[in-house]
Each structure stands twice: as C-alpha cells, then as structure tokens.
Design a protein that fits this description.
9-stranded mixed sheet; 4-stranded mixed sheet; 15 strands; CUB domain-containing protein
C-alpha cells in the first residue's frame, strides 16, 4: 500500500511540474520553444544539428544560461533550422543584449543561408517589443557605421522559397568568457518562421506578405516579429502589441520564479499531507490516540466519582435477618407451656 502511495505521489509531482512549466515551453500552439543551453544547440564538441520546423515556427531563447555568467571558456553555438520543401524561412532576433569591444563585437550572432551567404556579426542591444521596426541607433564607433541602415540594422535574415528544396538558416552564436561589468547583462531570443507560396495554401488560413508569398494568420499581431524588416511586416498594423513574451529584465524573471516556487511548494505540501493521511501516518482526532497519552481523561473520571449502581425496589418494612440469628433455636410458645391457662373453656 505504501509503495503505491509513493508512486502516486511521484506521478502527481510530475504532473504538477509539467503544469508549472507548460507556459514556458509553448507560446500558443504555433511556436516551439528551445533553450540555448542544450547540446542540440550548443554542443561541447562544436557539432551542428539541424531542426526541422516544417511549416511552423520556433523560438530559441537563452533562458537561464546567462543569469550567472562565470565561465572559463567561450561559448560557441552553431545550429540549423530547415523548413518543408518549397517553403521559405525567416530568422529574426527578437531581443538581444551582447557586448561590444570598441568597434568589434565581443559577443555576436551571425546567420548563414543555404547558398552560404552570411550576414554581418550582430551585437549590441535590441528589444523589438519596445522599438518595433524603427531604426535602431548605433554608436558612432559601431562596426556598422559604414553599412547602410537597411543592411546593418535589420538583425534578421531569410532564405527565400525554392520549389526544389527546403529553406535553411544556420545560426552561429559566440559569447566571450569575459566577466560582465557592472550594469551589463546577456540576453538573446530569436524567432524562426516559415512562409510559403500563396498558390499552395488555403487563403482563409494564410495572409499574403507580398511577392506571392503567404504566412499563417496566427503569426500576425501575436507579439512576435516574424517578418524580416524590409521584406514584410506582421506587427505594424496591430492596435496594441501587448502580447510580447520577451522579458525586458531580471525583475520579471525573479517574480515569476518566486511565484512558481511558492505554488510548487504548496502543491507538494498538500500532496504529502494527503498521502500521510491516507497511509494513516497522521492522527487528527482523539479516537485513534493511545489511551496512555490522555491523562486528562483519567483525571476527569476520578472527578466524576464511581457510577451509582441500580438498586431494585423492595418493601420498606422488610428487615434482613442475619443468618447467625436464624440458625439459633427459638424458645417454646406460651400455649405449649401452659395449655390449660390458654383454654379456660375446656377446664
């Protein structure tokens, strides 16, 4: 019985953990979220793995990997996303906080298409939930100072549609081992979204983004910037863009973490109480307590005194004669001693 209770408790704990973490694993039902700290994206041997998103979308986030940046070696990640055959692929940086070293990128992100065309190394700070598609200002000594704004400040790349093959985008991420200075922090979030030819899809489920290409309706006005700037726009006509899932600081992470921990601890505590009660390890009533552990009840019984026995009713004049008196011989009667005096008529 105890073994089954333990197994039941472990199952409930697993389900509770999944419920708590579900909101961080999926954004609606159209984005698959990946953590940058996994071997699939940052392999220790430098291997490159390919993830097929088919006709969907994915988001790669740094999550907790940058919270305490105290490492001995540089972090070098390289991974590839691909789509279904005949689809194109967008790769758009949603949020980034990477360091510069004067005119060079100390940390950077770089995209490479299937035809081996590479972008510049992107670094600096950007948060699309705040700046939307406006031009992001760069310092005067920026590595992008000689580049055109349309090329240098898109922080995105795309692989166009090829009817004979799938689209692919390789992403290279480099983080220096140098310690963070006061006020510095690292953050990264990249969205990868597929798009296709409008002639191959249901136009009720897809929206045109120009050039005879379409994207799923769910990717518009959802707080995620799917289109590469200068190619198309999916968030510019939204009345209020309040659905962004990109965190803007560590305060939100601390709050969410604290609330999640409290909820999980409360669930575990309640399940422990339930299991202990079901296994009869706890006693919340005096019915199951040891009689020796209740001295106050014994004391009360003495205070009340012995119970009064029930006495049957009897005649009030009946006198009980001791057995010693009944066994003695009684004196003879007067008639037996003086018969003549007792009968004068007969004399």
């Amino acid at each position: 019985m105890a073994r089954w209770n333990v197994l039941h408790f472990l199952c409930l704990l697993y389900l509770a953990n999944n419920c708590v973490n579900y909101g961080s694993c999926m954004h609606d039902d159209h984005y698959v979220e990946y953590g940058l700290g996994t071997q699939k994206f940052c392999h220790v041997l430098g291997k490159t793995f390919t993830t097929d998103i088919k006709s969907g979308a994915a988001i790669v986030m740094s999550k907790h990997i940058f919270e305490q940046w105290m490492v001995r070696t540089n972090l070098h990640c390289k991974f590839t996303f691909k789509t279904a055959k005949g689809d194109g692929l967008f790769g758009v940086i949603q949020k980034m906080s990477f360091r510069r070293n004067k005119t060079q990128c100390l940390d950077y992100v770089q995209f490479k298409r299937k035809d081996h065309h590479q972008t510049e190394k992107f670094c600096g700070s950007i948060d699309r939930s705040k700046v939307k598609y406006y031009v992001v200002p760069e310092p005067e000594d920026s590595v992008y100072s000689s580049e055109s704004p349309s090329l240098a400040r898109t922080y995105a790349e795309y692989d166009p549609i090829n009817h004979k093959s799938a689209a692919e985008l390789e992403t290279e991420i480099f983080i220096s081992k140098e310690k963070l200075k006061e006020g510095e922090f690292l953050a990264l979030s990249i969205a990868y979204t597929s798009f296709t030819n409008c002639s191959h899809v249901d136009r009720e489920k897809y929206t045109s983004i120009g050039y005879q290409t379409c994207m799923l309706n769910e990717f518009f006005c959802d707080g995620i910037y799917n289109c590469a700037p200068g190619v198309c726009f999916d968030e510019d006509t939204c009345p209020n863009n309040t659905n962004a899932i990109i965190s803007t600081g560590t305060g939100t992470k601390v709050t969410v973490g604290a609330v999640t921990t409290l909820i999980l601890c409360f669930i575990i505590f309640m399940m422990c109480l339930w299991i202990c009660k079901r296994s009869q390890k706890l006693c919340w009533s005096m019915d199951c307590a040891d009689p020796n552990s209740r001295p106050w009840q014994v004391h009360a019984s003495y205070m009340e005194g012995p119970a009064t026995p029930v006495v049957p009713s009897a005649p009030m004049l009946e006198v009980a004669v001791p057995s010693s008196v009944a066994d003695k011989d009684l004196p003879p009667s007067y008639d037996s001693l003086f018969p003549e005096q007792s009968n004068p008529v007969r004399s």
